[in-house]
Design a protein that fits this description.
By secondary structure, the chain is mainly alpha-helical. It has 16 helices and 4 strands. The chain is flat. The two termini are 13 Å apart. The relative contact order is 0.15.
């Protein structure tokens, strides 16, 4: 049996909101893919709350605990729920890069009521290169830079860029089984990171992706001209060989790239700090006390990365902010005749009960 709340939509929320003009802030429901996403979207939406309106983040009722963009979108689209008072906040995956090639990508890119990350996923923001040094400091309490993380991530992007473009091309051509996301992930993952020679692993990665691209070019020679055109299209979106890590699969980026880099850096910084404590300790008891306190104060790297919020200067974050500002401009004026608003709400109730 369906509940009335299962079919509440933007028109219903707008009518309910107008019953109380001036007495409370208007409410905009923001549906997200899963409870894991709530804190990310709350941080963004907080910046746009005012005396006139506020956002309430929710999971689609029909989706239950199912995670993912497709279940979330399907749940709210079935009820024709989206509008100025009810929006969806989702990961872009490759949909922003797909333009209008699929029905889902067309809807996500064209609907003003869908706020997308533009990066592949929320995790890509948490891996924003300019914020990763802060993660290392939090986890080690050591403010030294054994590696230029921003440069490393830029060079990583350059190394995987050719394979990334091919992977996007296959997905745009709807032939992703011929070069799947999983295969691309295998081609672009990092091995052991040696901080004394970080360029070696990047060189090895570059050689590996170049071999794959050479094979793809030989196997699909008719695609080469389209590959060049795709590079121009990606550039028009602000995607370059230096920042394409923001647009590859977020889980892969976290597990197979960024955590491997941060693990190596933090291990180095922790060993350095512990050596310093050993040299400065006057006696063994003081050393034991200090080393215990230091280790107790450290933060888990993966947890710190998951809680990272130092990405708000990322250009893609500015795109999301712009979309929310555009949405708020479209909000109808609050107020009007209460009697008519009551009729609107009554009509919405009757429609949903029917």
């Amino acid at each position: 049996m369906k509940r009335l709340t299962d079919n509440v939509n933007s028109r219903y929320m707008q009518a309910a909101d107008r019953l109380f003009p001036g007495s409370r802030r208007g409410r905009i429901i923001a549906y997200v893919e899963s409870y894991d996403d709530v804190s990310f979207w709350r941080l963004l939406l907080d910046e746009f709350e005012s005396k006139e309106h506020h956002f309430q983040i929710m999971l689609p009722a029909k989706g239950g605990l199912t995670k993912g963009k497709k279940p979330a979108l399907n749940s709210i689209l079935e009820a024709d729920a989206l509008g100025s008072h009810m929006i969806a906040c989702v990961d872009s995956d490759y949909d922003w890069l797909m333009d209008d090639i699929t029905g889902t990508s067309r809807f996500i890119n064209e609907s003003p009521y869908v706020i997308q990350t533009y990066t592949y996923a929320i995790e890509n923001y948490q891996c924003w290169a300019h914020s990763l040094y802060q993660i290392c400091v939090q986890c080690t309490l050591n403010d030294r830079r054994p590696v230029d993380i921003e440069e490393f991530m830029a060079e990583y992007s350059k190394a995987v860029w050719p394979a990334f473009v091919w992977n996007v091309w296959f997905y745009r051509a709807r032939r992703h089984s011929e070069y799947s996301m999983q295969e691309f992930g295998i081609d672009t993952r990092l091995g052991h990171v040696d901080l004394k020679h970080p360029s070696k692993i990047l060189q090895s990665l570059s050689e590996r992706t170049q071999r794959k691209v050479a094979l793809l070019s030989q196997k699909y020679p008719d695609a080469l001209e389209q590959i060049d055109e795709l590079k121009k299209l990606l550039a028009s979106k602000g995607i370059t060989e230096s920042n394409c890590y923001l647009f590859i699969q977020g889980h892969h980026l976290v597990e197979n790239v960024v955590l491997k880099l941060l693990d190596a850096i933090c291990l180095n910084l922790r060993q350095e700090r512990e050596t310093e404590i050993r040299h400065l300790a006057v006696h063994q008891q003081q050393y034991q006390n200090e080393i215990s306190a230091y280790r107790h104060s450290q933060m888990d790297i993966s947890e710190a990365l998951r809680k990272n919020t130092h990405y708000r200067d990322c250009p893609m974050y500015a795109r999301m902010s712009r979309d929310i500002r555009d949405l708020l401009v479209m909000l109808p004026e609050r107020g009007g005749e209460k009697q008519q608003d009551g009729e609107d709400l009554k009509t919405a109730d009757q429609h949903q009960q029917g």
